[in-house]
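[Automated response] Your request has been received and processed.

Submitted sequence:
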Amino acid sequence: MRKNRVLLGMIFITSIVSLSVSAGQKKSEPKFNINKGLSFMSDLIHGSQKKCPPVKEKEESGKQQQPPEIELSLHFQGDLTQWTPQIKAAGMFPRGSAVYTSSGNLKDKNISGIIHAASGSHSMVEGAHPTLSSIAQSVQNSLKLAKLHKHKKVAIPLIGGGIFLNYIFEATNLSPAQKQKQLVQTLVRAVITENAKEENPIPVVFLAYEPEVAQLFQVVIAEEFKGGQQQKIESKRGSITEFKDHGADVIVNAANMEVQFGGGVSGVIAKAAGGGAIANAIDQEAQELLQILHSRALKSH
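Generated structure:
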């Protein structure tokens, strides 16, 4: 290797002398610096100890910034142990979870968000039907989302009523009145339990359009607190979609695990949010969150 360097050096110095002579004959051409040439030859023979400075990568100032990854916890709260392979395959969220979306036209009424309480489904998929436990979990997860979004007050309807009531109590012989009271007790106790964890619990108002249901909420709230401080929990008669009826800046939708608008309270909310394309866009928000949940689950495995 050293012999090769010496040979290259001899060839190089011959070139230097030739260039120097030519430069002396033609004054118009620039002269070759023989000292630098000899220095280069020495480096070539003995091996230069100098290191080239690192090349700085050119900053791509014009490159478009990628949008930040969505913070899933701000849009979904739930127990992933409830997310069985069957429920995943059916395209549903975990039972008892809650999903946060925009509110469509309701924002013009000072209602800036909708929290979908995914307490159960009509589906015959195993583990999809609602239970009192999944009702309570969906309410508590809804309150977590409301707190994370710094809402000032939450309005909650009768979650688990209608057809869901039959699923919840299908193995009992309770009367309709007894079933409804147990459901209301579950909702109120879920709020009390969740708010007890907070130093500054978020105010909650239970909304019912039927006067007898609104009265039942009042009775149960009074029984649970027995005259004590009510943790800023109240009951009112009115519409869940009317801010003037409850003063809450976020409302809870009595949703299914598919988190797609349906009938009953959910249908009323969908219509008030704008219906049609607007309601479909809110449904799509939920579906996009479901896809993110799937992709995160795959990465974790």
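Summary generated for your ticket: The chain has two domains: 2-46, 72-300. The longest helix spans residues 276-300.
If you did not submit this request, please reply to this message.
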